[in-house]
Amino acid sequence: MGSGPLDDTRFVGYRRKLIEDIRARGIDDLETLQYFDMVPRHTFLPEGVWPRAYEDAPIPIGFGQTASQPSLQAYYLSFLSPKRHEKILEIGTGSGFLTALLALTSDRVYSVERVRELSVRARRALDGMGVKNVALLVGDGTIGWRKYQPFDVIVVSAASPSIPSALVDQLADGGRMLIPVGSKESQELVHVQKTGFLISEDIVKGAVSFVPLLGRFAWADGGG
Ligand code: SAH
Prior knowledge:
By secondary structure, the chain is of the alpha/beta class. The chain has helices spanning 12-24, 30-38, 70-80, 97-105, 116-128, 165-169; strands at residues 59-62, 65-67, 87-91, 108-113, 134-138, 151-156, 171-182, 187-195, 198-208. It contains six helices and nine strands; from the N terminus they run H-H-E-E-H-E-H-E-H-E-E-H-E-E-E. Helix 6 (165-169) links the parallel strand 6 and strand 7 (171-182).
């Protein structure tokens, strides 16, 4: 599976269309759009869903999980606008597609996923792109990744009932985080910023829908 040239020309046209769809959603940050042009999204998805790989929609990736909607990931990127020297922590590697985009923006990306098989698949897809600046961990991201803290940017790709305090603790001074907070059905995107001892929380986008964050400081793992 996943054979053939990585940047399979069949998909170039679809990718251009996706970028147009993302622009139509109001994201016109050129850098962000360029990153989308550089990552072959289908290689991060199971082959069975390749025909839908460039739709602006969440796509099932197995294990009850979905790859997030591309325009929402574009929103994350353009909103956070990570700089090259900034250290990034991602919670919920999933397909690894956003991980790949983040690896283009910054030198050091750390990503935690609770489902081992997804992490393994993501690594394979990242390897396929020749990405070398990403460290992956299988575990509970609600406790962050202490070893590499503090992080300038934290990206949470799963919905949480509240903001896990470990993640706020692991933010650098001047650091920022985007996290969907709300019920399992619907959430608001919260921008958390740390300045010295000051923590601010602002809702920057309403009515988003992510798969649940399951772990010690979110929803109980294994509980429906
Ligand atoms: N950005 C990813 C999003 C995948 S969905 C993509 O586009 O593919 C969110 C992912 O978060 C799922 O893979 C899910 O297994 C994972 N997840 C849920 N709870 C988690 C936790 N506590 N720690 C780490 N990963 C978690």
